[in-house]
Design a protein that fits this description.
This protein folds into 2 domains: 286 residues, Metallo-beta-lactamase, Chain A (4-Layer Sandwich), CATH 3.60.15.10; 136 residues, Rossmann fold (3-Layer(aba) Sandwich). It has 12 helices and 24 strands. The strands form 4 sheets. It has an 8-stranded mixed sheet with strand order 8-7-6-3-2-1-21-22. A 7-stranded mixed sheet has the order 9-10-11-12-13-19-20, with helices on one face. Helix 4 packs across helix 8, helix 6 crosses helix 7 and helix 11 crosses helix 12. The longest helix is centred in the middle third of the chain and has 14 residues. It starts with 7 loop residues before the first strand and ends with a strand. Keywords: Exonuclease, Hydrolase, Metal-binding, Nuclease, RNA-binding, Zinc.
């Protein structure tokens, strides 16, 4: 199955009909362009009495099976990574040996990717081409331009993919945040200009399509987090997604305001902050102390930021809850703040973790029970989707990055905004954009691979 010069195709192998492990292919004139290459994690199974999560015998890291394109890798022009979240970049070290193509991405994402590749002894084998926002690269028959948008991680980019048969706007993960605090912002003109040029199809994030209104700005969280930290008497531990550098920036400012010292607990947090410093997007005023010093400070001077907001095993917050973290122990009167919401499927693990913390006498504040906002989503709610469809004015909308309910709601929004046609499908469906729009269902076999005992195994 090879597209000819009249064809313009979209073929998702992962991330359409599900949230996670994004792997997308665009086909034209005998070649393919891959956009994103991410991982997912199995849903937890039984929760033991001590809060330990027991998985159902599945590999702990999973990703889309790339067999279709791996069998045609001579037709693969390149891989574009839109941003540095695990569900978009995390599978590259596992799958690149099967693909062996150049990788194009922004500076911050490249910093994260290099750290991952080094762990697999691939750092000097994978050609990484850093691209600036606004820049355009010719990748095989595809002319790809990086467009600035905002998300819950620095330097996310949407893509304008241009071909002689038509243009595709690939949104990546995004929101419209007028005060993202860290990294680039966005300009409405960028997207209204696309409409003037003409957009054959818009492939769009559906994660929060069922959420009414507009997502919160990162800047809106300062008051809620400041109030929560200021009201605490003992140590404060904040758990959030490690990739949210803007959240770390807010917390560092709050540490200064409240006379506390801030340290990071957890490998992913330390890795992300290091990449932000290397990419030049870490505020020099945001000073961190060595986490090993936190245990020697008076309790009222400690502000630790820890991994583990989803109740994952072996993360820093889990170890603190079990009393086996090397840097300090939580005590009655300390406070843990969940500056994150549960990813669907993680609710039971988070509840077990919170129960364990409360058994220790720790005060727990979650995003759900906080009186003012302490967490902001990185994905567009309905008002933002409406705005983007009206800016871009695509001829065709293809919702992705969501379960069926999210994608169907996204399609409804697109139609209400005047988009002439929508196509809703799932992994393995071939979306034909040119010459005639339509879907061929399940033309490619899809599945999952898992990483277990230092090798890839088929999960299903």
């Amino acid at each position: 199955m090879t597209p000819d010069h009249n064809d313009l195709w979209f073929l998702p192998l992962g991330g359409t009909g599900e949230i996670g492990m994004n792997l997308n292919l665009y086909g034209h004139d005998g070649q393919w362009l891959m956009v994103d290459c991410g991982v997912t994690f199995p849903k937890p199974g039984r929760i033991a009495a001590d809060g330990t999560v027991h998985h159902r015998g599945e590999p702990p890291v999973q990703m889309a099976d790339p067999a279709f394109i791996a069998d045609r890798r001579e037709q693969l022009a390149g891989l574009v990574i839109t941003h540095a979240h695990e569900d978009h970049v995390g599978a590259v070290p596992y799958l690149w040996p099967m693909l062996q193509c150049p990788v194009y991405t922004s500076r911050f994402t490249a910093e994260i990717l290099r750290r991952k590749l080094a762990e697999f002894d691939l750092l000097h084998r994978v050609p990484i081409i850093e691209v600036n926002t606004g820049e355009e690269k010719q990748i095989g028959p595809f002319s790809v331009q990086w467009l600035a948008l905002t998300h819950s991680i620095p330097d996310p980019n949407a893509l304008m993919i241009r071909t002689p048969q038509g243009n595709i706007f690939h949104s990546g993960d995004w929101k419209l945040d007028d005060q993202p605090l860290v990294g680039h912002g966005y300009s409405p003109r960028t997207f209204t200009d696309l409409a003037e040029e003409g957009v054959a199809a818009m492939v769009c994030d559906s994660t929060n399509a069922t959420v009414k209104g507009h997502s919160l700005s990162e800047a809106a969280l300062h008051k809620g987090l400041l109030d929560a930290v200021r009201s605490a008497e003992g140590r404060v531990v904040v758990t959030c997604f490690g990739s949210n550098i803007a959240r770390l920036h807010t917390l560092a400012g709050i540490a200064r305001e409240t006379g506390r010292y801030m340290g990071l607990l957890g490998r992913s947090l330390i890795n992300m902050s290091g990449a932000a410093k290397a990419a030049g997007i870490w505020d020099r005023a945001d000073e961190l102390i060595n986490p090993s010093h936190l245990g020697y400070l008076p309790r009222e001077e400690v502000l630790a930021v820890a991994t583990g907001s989803q109740g994952e095993p072996r993360t820093a917050l889990r170890r603190l809850a079990m009393g086996n973290h090397p840097d300090f122990e939580l005590e009655a009167g300390d406070t843990v703040i969940f500056s994150a919401r549960a990813i669907p499927g993680n609710e039971e693990a988070i509840a077990a973790l919170i129960s364990r913390l409360k058994e220790l006498g720790v005060r727990v504040i979650t995003a759900e029970d906080a009186g003012v906002p302490i967490h902001a989503s990185g994905h567009p709610a309905q008002e933002e989707l409406e705005t983007m469809y009206r800016w871009v004015k695509p001829n065709l909308a293809i919702p992705v990055h969501g379960e069926m309910e999210h994608m169907e709601t996204n399609a409804d929004i697109a139609r209400a905004c005047g988009v002439p046609r929508t196509l809703v499908g799932r992994d393995g469906d071939l979306f034909m954009i040119r010459p005639v729009p339509g879907i061929r269902r399940q033309v490619v076999e899809t599945g999952r691979l898992g990483w277990e005992k230092q090798e890839l195994v088929r999960v299903y």
